[in-house]
Structures are given as structure tokens and as C-alpha cells.
Amino acid sequence: AATAALSAKVAPAPSDAASFACEMGHAAGEKLATAGQIVKGAAGEVKDITSGLAEQAASHASGAVEGVIEQAAKQKQRMEKLADHFKELLEGFMKRKLHRVLKILVQRLPGLLKSATDDTEMPRRVKRVKDAAIDAIW
């Protein structure tokens, strides 16, 4: 009797085969509909998650861009200060160099002027007065 009941479940009688197939088709349809709903819900969740991730990525990218802009502005200000400081140093160097060159030139001018105004036929007394006048001016 147990074997008969088991065989009835496994292989139904030919008269019951159509109703069995109909029940199985209906059950399969319900399972497919349920699976479709689950997939639809999962797709919605995936959509929500990905849109949230996209918003977070955009927010992080925006923050990073703002950070880069701030750093660039700070570096620009730093470079401007450095350029001003370099300009001041260079200006001071050039003034000191020019002062040294002019000092040497001014020290040499009396001798150059005396040599330029010398004349081989000039009497010594006139030459001494001329040289004294040049030294007095300097």
C-alpha cells in the first residue's frame, strides 16, 4: 500500500495527469511571479545603492576639487611672497654692487683726471697746482 501511494505521487494515473500538469504549471507560474517580484525588488535596491554611491562619489570629488583649489590659492600666495622677497634681495644686492663699483670709479677719477690733463711741456709748478686743485675738488 505504501508503494502504491508513493507511485501515485511520483507518477499519477493517466486521468489525473492533466490536472497534475495544470497544478504544476500553476505552481511554476506562481513561483516565477514571486521570483520576478524578488528580482524587481532587488533591482530597485541595486538602483538605490548605486545612485547613493554615485552621489557620494560626486560629493567626494567636489570636496577634493575644492581642496585642490584652496591649496593652489595658498601656493600662489606663497609664490608671490617669495617673488617679492627675492625682488627685495636682488634689489639690495644690485644697489650694494653699484655702490662698490661707483666707489672704485670715484677713487680712480682724480688719478685719471690728473693723467689726462698732464702735458710733457707743462712746468712742474703748474702741474703741482693743477694736481692740488684736482685733489681739493675730490
Provide structural commentary.
By secondary structure, the protein is mainly α. Helix content is 92%, strand content 0%. The chain is built from 3 helices and no strands. The protein has helices spanning 2-10, 14-117, 124-137. The longest helix is centred in the middle third of the chain and has 104 residues, at 14-117.
What general outline do the C-alpha atoms trace?
Answer: rod-shaped
Mean pLDDT: 84
pLDDT under 50 segments (min length 5)? none
Distance separating the two termini: 145 Å
Helix content: over 70%
Order of helices and strands: HHH
Task: Itemize the secondary structure elements and their pairings.
Elements: H1 2-10, H2 14-117, H3 124-137
Keywords:
mainly alpha; 92% helix; rod-shaped
Gist of the model:
The protein has helices spanning 2-10, 14-117, 124-137. It is mostly helical. 92% of the residues lie in helices and 0% in strands.
